[in-house]
Amino acid sequence: MGLQVLWSFGLACLDIYALRRKRDLQNPILVSLFVVGDWVTATLSLAAACSSAGIVVLYARDLTVCATSKRLTCNRYQVSVAMAFLTWVLTAMSSHVMFWILASV
């Protein structure tokens, strides 16, 4: 998810720069770079969410670590996995919108 934060921060800085300088970002090469970047971050966030879900299932169901250990709160892990999948859904929607912007340029 660190790459996702860096990618989003870079795009936000580029948007602020373009708004201050009144520049147009509708260059086909630049938009295609954004599309590929969004696809890569969407794929990586899906992989991270799926692997985290696998670890939660391993701890909660297979090893029963959550039932035996009182210090380990598995509910937090489950909530974080749900948020990771929510992040993936939002990133996938963003990459889909960027694809349609690329088609319109």
From TrEMBL:
> What residues form the membrane-spanning segments?
42-60, 81-103
Q: Which domain of life is it from?
A: Eukaryota
Q: Does the keyword NAD apply?
A: no
Instruction: Report the residue ranges that make up the Casparian strip membrane protein domain in this protein.
Output: 1-90
Task: Give the Pfam families listed for this entry.
Answer: CASP_dom
| Family annotation (InterPro entries) | CASP_dom, CASPL-5
Q: Which UniProt keywords apply?
A: Cell membrane, Membrane, Transmembrane, Transmembrane helix
The record gives the membrane topology as: Multi-pass membrane protein
Which GO CC annotations does the UniProt entry carry?
Answer: plasma membrane
What coarse category fits the chief subcellular location reported for this protein?
membrane
Q: Where in the cell is it found?
A: Cell membrane
Q: How does it assemble?
A: Homodimer and heterodimers.
The family note in this entry says:
Belongs to the Casparian strip membrane proteins (CASP) family.
Q: What protein does this entry describe?
A: CASP-like protein
What organism does the record attribute this protein to?
Answer: Glycine max (Soybean)
Q: What is the lineage of its organism?
A: Eukaryota, Viridiplantae, Streptophyta, Embryophyta, Tracheophyta
